[in-house]
Amino acid sequence: MDSWIWSVRLTKTRSMASSACRAGHVRVNGERVKPAQAVRPGDEVRLRHAGRDRIVVVSRVVRKRVGAAVAAECFVDNSPPPPPREHTVPIGLRDRGTGRPTKRDRREMERLRGTPGDIG
């Protein structure tokens, strides 16, 4: 299981895939699986990774890591679309080369960010 998840590029490393299996973030046909579990075509794999649920149906089993084009052919992605990113202006960023912020600048940045300042 962990090698297939890594081979089709659902996770960045095989150790991340193995850790996800051990933590119970991977389910095959509704059942929690171990990293050594075999995967067959037609299995539905649910993976919780990076704060997102991925739901894929296995169409082809591969043993070694393959290119992105080949990996896309190895499963059918039934995942819900990712939530839209909000386009917000970063608050409290300073221009490069303006030097170290003064105490007044720091307090203003903390006020904009909504973080508490020093107590005392």
How many DSSP helices? 4
- Care to count the β-strands? 5
The main sheet orders its strands as 2-1-3-4-5
What does the radius of gyration come to? 22 Å
Count of distinct structural domains: 2
Shape: elongated
CATH class of the largest domain: Alpha Beta
| Head-to-tail CA distance between termini | 54 Å
- How much is the average pLDDT? 87
Main β-sheet, in a few words? 5 strands, antiparallel
Strand proportion = 15-25%
- Report the CATH superfamily of the largest domain: RNA-binding S4 domain
CATH topology of the largest domain: Structural Genomics Hypothetical 15.5 Kd Protein In mrcA-pckA Intergenic Region, Chain A
Helix content: 25-40%
Query: Which structural class do you get from the secondary structure elements?
Result: alpha+beta
Helix and strand element order: HHEEEEHEH
Which spans have pLDDT < 50 for at least 5 consecutive residues?
A: none
CATH architecture of the largest domain: Roll
Overview of the molecule:
This protein has 120 residues and is an alpha+beta fold. It has 2 domains: 2-77, Roll (Structural Genomics Hypothetical 15.5 Kd Protein In mrcA-pckA Intergenic Region, Chain A); 88-120, no CATH class. Helix content is 26%, strand content 18%. The chain is built from 4 helices and 5 strands, in the order H-H-E-E-E-E-H-E-H. The chain has helices at 2-7, 14-22, 68-72, 103-113, and strands at residues 26-28, 31-32, 44-49, 52-58, 75-77. The longest helix has 11 residues, at 103-113. The radius of gyration is 22 Å and the shape is elongated. The model has no long low-confidence stretch (mean pLDDT 87).
